[in-house]
Write a structure and sequence with these properties.
- The protein is of the alpha+beta class.
- It folds into two domains: 41 residues; 45 residues, Roll (SH3 type barrels).
- Helix content is 43%, strand content 26%.
- It has a five-stranded antiparallel sheet with strand order 4-3-2-1-5, covered by helices on one side.
- A hairpin with a 2-residue loop joins strand 3 and strand 4.
Length: 112
Amino acid sequence: MFTNLALAQAAPAAGSSGAGMVMQFVPLLLIFAVFYFLLIRPQQQAAKRHRAKIDAVKKGDQVVTGGGLVGKVVRVDEGYVDVELAQGIKVKAVKGTLSDVIDPMTAKPAND
């Protein structure tokens, strides 16, 4: 008895399988669209802006490394930058690990 009832409920109704299946995917597509426009797309745009800012680093820019060290760019190679942290103290950093390029117009001078 239970088997017959389960098979009857599992069988799709005649004529409504195509429209019913489409209506089941509409909420999923709507959720994906909301996630794309509210989460994925803004994150991709921010990453693109960051990548462009890091690729445009030039000698004399003030940068922040991934470790939080602030310094002045002395030399730029293809994948590396030499950063002067203090007078006479230079480190070589991978360009991809730079977290920010500080704008000289808005930067506050350090208390030297």
